[in-house]
Amino acid sequence: MMGIGFWAVTQKASYKTFSSISTDPAAVLIAVGIFIFIISFFGTVGALRENICMLQTVSITILVTTG
């Protein structure tokens, strides 16, 4: 998602119709991609190191975002 967002930002550099970050879909894609990357990183490293704090962070985040 981050890659698609960065690609969209570079492709629309000549178009200035969406000048606000709140109305820019590419910025939303980048933000969601960063969020997914961080959560998956916590899950992977937490499982690898058997770190309970990181695994609880992942499970609470998943619970809050899907519930």
Walkthrough of the structure:
It is a single chain. The chain is mainly alpha-helical and 67 residues long. It has one domain. 75% of the residues lie in helices and 0% in strands. The chain is built from 3 helices and no strands. The longest helix has 25 residues, at 25-49. The two termini are 22 Å apart.
Based on secondary structure, the structural category is mainly alpha
The proportion of strand residues reads: under 5%
Major beta sheet summary? none
Shape summary: elongated
Helix percent reads over 70%
Number-wise, the strands total 0
State the low-pLDDT regions, or none: none
Which structural traits does this protein have?
single chain, 67 residues, mainly alpha, 3 helices, 75% helix, 0% strand
Secondary-structure topology with pairs:
Elements: H1 2-11, H2 25-49, H3 52-66
Helix pairs in contact: 1-2, 2-3
